[in-house]
Amino acid sequence: MQGSSRLVLAHFWAAFATFAVAIPLGAWQMLVRSPLHQWIAPELYYRAVTAHGTTFAYVFPTLIAMGFGYAVCAVSLGRPMRGLSLAWISFALVIVGAAMALATVAAGKANVLYTFYPPLLGSPYYYLGILVAVVGTWVWIGLMVWHVRRWKIDHPVLPIPLAMFATAVGALLWGWTSLGVGAEIAFLILPNAFGWTSTIDPGLARVLFSWTLHAIVYFWLIPAYIAFYVLLPQAADGRLYSDKMGRIAFLLLLIFSMPIGLHHLFVDPQIGAGFKFLHTVFTGMVVVPTLLTIFTICASLEIAGRLRGGRGPFGWIAALPWDRPFVLASGFSMVMLGLGGASGIINMSYVLNSTVHNTQWVTGHFHLIYGGAVVIMYFAIAYELWPRLTGRPLAAPKLVRLQLWTWSVGMLLVTLPWHLVGVMGQPRRMAYYDFSNPALASQGVWVTVSAIGGFVLVFSAALFIGVLLASHRGPTAAISPLKFSLAVNPPRRLPKSLNSFGIWAALVLALTLANYGYPLAQFAFLGKSAVPAFPVSQNDRR
Amino acid sequence: MTDVDQPRPRDPRFAIWIGVTAGLFVLALVVGFIWLPLAQRGADGLDLWSAICRAVGLPSGNARVSAPVAGQPASQVAWTTETRRRLAQGDASAGAAIAQACNNCHGVVGISADAIIPNLAGQSAAAIYKQLDDYKSGKRDPAVMGVYVSPLSDQNLLDLAAHYGLLPNPTGDTLSTQSSTSTVARRLIDVGAPLRGIAPCASCHGPAGVTPGAPGLRGQQRAYLELQMQLFKDGTRRNDISEQMRSVARQLTSEEIAMLAAHYSSIPDTGGR
Question: Is residue A495 part of a domain?
C-alpha cells in the first residue's frame, strides 16, 4: 500500500484494541440494570458508561477514519504518502490523549459521561486527554488536505479521485466541527477544573458542545459512505452508478451537517425557539445526501445484479453475491441505516422530540446508526484491507459471515427494544430501574431481550478480533492490490464546483456564523448564567 | 453529460447552490422568527418586533407578560451565585460560639433530645442559612425562633450554617436500603404518585434522603418531619420557593405523611433513639 501499510495497520489495531475493551463494558452495563441482575452502585455504572462512550466517541472511530484516510490517500492518489513521520506523531498524540482520558475514567475521577456537560466536573486530566487526542487528529487533517492540494497542483485538470475527495471532505468537516468541543474544553472547562475560575456557564458549554455533537456523527459516517461508493460496487462485480452524485452527496454533508447542532438542545431554555426552528430546517437538509447515497448505491447494486444475470424487478437482489463479506455487510448496513434514519427524522422534529427526549429511544437511535450501520462497515473495510496489509488471505470466510450476521442480529436485538421502552417512557442514563414497580414491570422483558443482544455483540466482537488475528498467521499469497470502483461514466473532467473545496468551505463558514453567531454571542450580554461547577469524582464528593 | 465535461472558466453551480442555501435560510428565518411566533397561542396583539425578540429568546418591552403576581416572594433568599459565594464565607468556629444559645434545644452536637425540635448536625449549610433567614424576615413563622434570630447579623447566620453543616451527622452518608418500613413510603420516595401529581421525594432529596441541593432528611426527628409536612399541607408554612413542598404535601394523606416521617427518621437506625 505505497509504503503506508504499517501506519494503516497501527491505526486499525489500536482502534480494535479499544473496541475489544469497550464492547464488553457496554454489555455489562446493559446486564446490571436489567432484571437479570441486582442493582449496583451507580458510581460504578457511570464510570463504565463514561469509558464506553469516550472510547466510541473520540477514540475508536477517529482512529478508523485516520487509518482509512491514509489507505485511501496512498491508493487513490497512486503515490507514496509524504510526511509519514508527522502521521506517526499524530497517531502518538491520539494514543497518549486517549490513554490519559481513559486512565482518568478508570480511576473513577471523571464519571461525567462522554458528553461531560457542565456543571458536572471531573478531573482536568480527562479533558486534557481528549484535547490532546483532538489536537492529534488536526495533524491528520493537515496531511489529508496537503496531499489533495499537492495532487491538484500536479494534475490541474484531472478530477480528484472520488475516494480522496470524500476523505478530504471528512477531514475538513472534522477540522471545523472539532473547534466547538476544543473551545469548550480549553476556555470553559479546563480553567474551572484547574481552579482558575470559580464558575462555569452550562448554557454556553452546551452550545459549544452541540457545535461538535452532530457533525461528529457524520465524521464517523463518512468512512462508511466512502466504502459504499468506492468499494461496494466493485465487490459486487458492478460499477458505481454515478461518480458525480457521490461528490454532491459528500459536499452536501460538508455544508449541512455542521450548522444544525442546536437540534440537540430542543429543551434548553437558553436558546430562542426561532433558532431551534432554523436548525430543524437545516437538519432536514442533511437527509438529502443520505437519500442520494441510498439511491446511488441501490442503482449500483442493481447494475451489478443485472450483470450477474438477475432479472425482473427484484431478481437482481437475489443475484447479488451475498456470500462476499463486503456485500453482506453493506446489505445489513443499509437496513440499519434505514431504520435508524427513520428514528432520526423523529428526533429532529421539534414536536416529536419532546416525547422521546432523554429516553432510551435516543440511545437506541444512535446505537443503531453508529454501532450498527457505521461500525459494520468498519468491519467490512477491515476485511477488505486486511489481505492487502498483511499479504495473507482472510482466514475463515464462514466465520466472517457469521460475525457479520451476529453483529447485525445483536445490534437489532439491542436497539429495537430500546426504541420501544423509550416510547414507554424509560429515561436514558439511569444506573438502575425498579422493575418490581407495576408501572415499569412491562418494560422488564424488553430490557432483558436487549441485554441478551448485548452478549450476542460481545460474541461477534470476539469473533471479529479472532478472525483478524488468525489472518496474520496464514500463508502468504499473491493478493490483488486494492482498487476502487469504476463509475459507469468515469468523469474525465469535472466542473470546479465538484472538484474543489474553497468556496464550499466559505459557505460552511457563512452558515455557521448565521446559525451559531447569535446563540453564542448572546452569552456575552445575557450574563448571570454561570454557576459553580459540581465535582462528580468519587473523592471530591462530600 | 458532455457539456459537463467541458472545462469552463466559471462554474454556475456555485451561484445556484449558494443561492438555494441562502434562500432556504431566509425562508427559515421568516417562518421561524416571524410567522411561527405570531401564529402561536398567546400572541394576540404582539407586534412584529416583539415577535422577533420572542423567537430570538429576548424579553421585550411590549411583549405580553402575565400580570405581576400579588403578594410577596416565599423567601428573601435566592440561590444566586452571590448567595453561594457568601455561604462559602461562613466561619464555623464563630458559628460554634453563637451556637451556645442554640444548644439548649438543638443539642450540644446538633442532635436534639425532643422529637419536635429538628436535628441540625450535618444538615446542608444552605438549608440552615435559608431557614434562619426566613425566620428573621418572617417568611417562616417566627413564633419560637424569631426571638433568637432577630439580633443576629447576616454574617452570624452564615457562621451558624457553616458550624452545623460541619457537625457530623451520626447517621453517616452511606447508602442503606435496610431501613424500610412501609412499601407505601418507599414507593412515594422512588416513584411518587404520578396520578396525583406527586413527584418522587428522591428526585429532590435523593434516594437515601441526602443529596446536594436539598435539605437532608435522613435521621431527622420524626415528629418534626410530620409536623412540617402537615404545615405545608394546610398552607400554614409557605416559605418553599416555587411552592414545591406545598404542592406535594397538599396531595399526601395524613397516613402517608406519617409513614414518610417514620421512614426518613429511621434511616438508618442510630441506635440511640
Answer: yes
Q: What is the mean pLDDT of chain A?
A: 94
- Tell whether B179 and B273 lie within a shared domain: yes
Say if residues A254 and A172 touch (Cβ distance below 8 Å).
yes
Q: How far is B142 from chain A (nearest CA, A)?
A: 32
Nearest C-alpha in B relative to A499: B11
Alpha carbons within 13 angstroms on the beta-carbon side of residue B36 total: 19
Q: What is the pLDDT of residue B23?
A: 96
| Environment class of A40 (CB within 10 Å of its CB; exposed 0-12, middle 13-18, buried 19+) | middle
Same domain? B86 vs B38: no
Q: How many Cβ contacts (< 8 angstroms) between chains A and B?
A: 98
**Rounded mean pLDDT, A498-505:** 92
**Residue of A199, A260, A281 for testing the chain B interface, max B β-carbons within 10 Å:** A281
- Decide if A275 and B17 are in contact by the 8 Å CB cutoff: no
pLDDT band at B67 (very low <50, low <70, confident <90, very high): low
Distance (Å) from the alpha carbon of A36 to chain B's nearest alpha carbon: 20
Pairwise CB contact (< 8 Å): B32 & A434: no
Q: What CATH number is given to the structural domain containing A15?
A: 1.20.210.10
Give the pLDDT score at A436: 84
Of B20, B13, B3, nearest to A288 (Cα)? B20
Residues B166 and B183 in one domain: no
Query: Are A281 and B57 in contact (CB < 8 Å)?
Result: no
Q: Is B81–A518 a contact, with Cβ atoms under 8 angstroms apart? A: no
Average pLDDT (A436-454) is 92
Domain count along chain A: 1
Confidence band for A539, pLDDT divided at 50, 70 and 90 = very low
- Chain A neighbours among B 64-103 (CB < 8 Å)? 80-81, 84-85
Domain CATH code at residue B160 = 1.10.760.10
- Based on the residue annotation, tell me whether A70 is a catalytic residue of this protein: no
Q: What is the pLDDT of residue A394?
A: 93
With H, G, I as helix, E, B as strand and everything else as coil, classify residue A198: coil
Total number of domains constituting chain B:
3
Range of B220's domain?
A: 172-273
The per-residue pLDDT for B66 is 55
Residue B209 domain-assigned (yes or no): yes
Tell me if ipTM is over 0.90. no
Q: Which of A114, A428, A459, A472 is flagged as catalytic?
A: A428
Examine the pLDDT at B176 and tell me if it is beyond 60. Answer: no
Check pLDDT > 80 for residue B71: no
Q: Does residue A428 form part of some domain?
A: no
The active-site residue out of A149, A277, A429, A518 is A429
Asked if B56's CB is within 8 angstroms of A439's CB, the reply is no
How confident is the model over A350-375, as a mean pLDDT?
A: 94
- Let me know if residue A435 belongs to a domain: no
Residues B184 and B273 in one domain: yes
Q: Does one domain contain both B183 and B271?
A: yes
B42 touches A: beta carbon within 8 Å: no
CB contact under 8 A, A274 and B52: yes
Q: Do A495 and B31 touch (CB under 8 A)?
A: no
Active site residue A150: no
Residues on chain A touching B18 (C-beta within 8 angstroms): 503, 507
Percent of chain A with pLDDT over 70: 99
pLDDT at residue A439 in the model: 82
Active site residue A19: no
Looking at chain B, how many residues does it have? 273
Q: What are residue B193's phi and psi, to 5 degrees?
A: -135, 85
Please report how many Cα atoms fall inside a 13 Å half-sphere around the Cα of residue A251, on the Cβ side: 24
How high is the pLDDT of residue B172?
56
Residues B159 and B231 in one domain: no
Instruction: State whether B149 and B176 are in the same domain.
Output: no
